[in-house]
Amino acid sequence: MGVVEKVGLVVSAGKGLNMLSRSKKSRATEYHLGLLKAKLARYRAQLLEPASKSGGAGTGFDVQKSGDARVALIGFPSVGKSTLLSKTTETASETAAYEFTTLTAIPGVIEYNGARIQLLDLPGIVEGASQGRGRGRQVVSTAKTADLILIMLDATKSDEQRRLLEIELDAVGIRLNKQKPDVVFKRKTTGGSVNFFNTTVKLTRTDERTIRSILASYKLHNCDVMIREDITTDEFIDVLIGTRKYIPCLYVYNKIDAISLEQMDKIARTEHTVVISCELGLNLDYLIERIWDDLGLVKIYTKKRGAQPDLADPVCLRKGCGKSSKFSPHAQKVSLHHAVQDEDVVSIFTK
Ligand SMILES: Nc1nc2c(ncn2[C@@H]2O[C@H](COP(=O)(O)OP(=O)(O)OP(=O)(O)O)[C@@H](O)[C@H]2O)c(=O)[nH]1
Ligand SMILES: [K+]
Ligand SMILES: [Mg+2]
């Protein structure tokens, strides 16, 4: 009995030591990988954001932004992007069964809830688009200017298409459905050569040593870093690069008329996803509702003092955070920084 216990003790101690060295090892790997990623991210950023503004492959299509928000359609060829534009707006964009029917950006307007939402039909992209294949570079650059990206997918094809598109957008610095990391990062011109590092939370996915080394590798020797959420090393690099775009995204699976109900059911339950059939006009109303929601649009009514609000002519704004007056429907005076809610009535006055 006693012997067995002893053996047990020895074995578990050995395990403990093993685990210790393994986690040390993985910390070291994480550290070196972090530095390597910082270097790579810097090279990529230089490639993608040339100092000259002379245009070229890195710039998007020359279409003016208009209306209350811009939504860009991104997808492989022939998934039905132009069919969607033609069905939801007054604009006709050529559709056909062959690939690369659309060769440039075609804007249309979705009118909904008093808002004018610009929907941008774009050429299909292929794998390697961000590296300049086809019109890809131009398409993904245009995606950067959108307030919402619709990644359009063919429901009859494998889900590999979705991953490939995400890779292309990620490569040009677009972060989908992510908030900007809660990190305060300031470069300073005075105060000597020291990087101040502070956190308000425990870091479990990166550490101070990795971050300090990355700062050094960027030749940053005089800045303030305050980390307020449990970020990864990659997210810290994003903050340093500074040109990342955090854009909401809806995955739109088209051609559900050509798959089974079971398959459709499964896809429809995934996060940030809408299933449609452009051909049969199925679920397009719901898609537009979701676009409105994801854009965070609100409509507010304006009124002159002492007059009734003009309910026929709302103004559309992007939603701020926070709640409107909890005393509604009664009027309340608020500051100009007040965040409005959907269907608020607003009148502006001077003291
Ligand atoms: N079965 C089915 N076919 C569809 C649907 N929507 C579009 N299509 C067909 O898909 C083909 C391609 O449609 P397009 O709208 O030209 O696709 P696109 O994504 O704009 O293609 P590119 O401009 O070439 O990138 C056409 O033959 C359409 O008729 C749908 O809901 N169901
Ligand atoms: K097509
Ligand atoms: Mg098209």
Automatic annotation (TrEMBL):
SUPFAM superfamilies: P-loop containing nucleoside triphosphate hydrolases. It comes from the Eukaryota. GO terms for molecular function: GTP binding; GTPase activity. InterPro entries: DRG (IPR045001), G_OBG (IPR031167), GTP-bd (IPR006073), GTP-binding_2 (IPR031662), GTP1-OBG_CS (IPR006074), P-loop_NTPase (IPR027417), Small_GTP-bd (IPR005225). The keyword Transcription does not apply. Pfam families: MMR_HSR1, MMR_HSR1_Xtn. Keywords: GTP-binding, Nucleotide-binding. Gene3D superfamilies: P-loop containing nucleotide triphosphate hydrolases. Residues 69-296 form the OBG-type G domain. This is OBG-type G domain-containing protein. It comes from Piloderma croceum (strain F 1598).
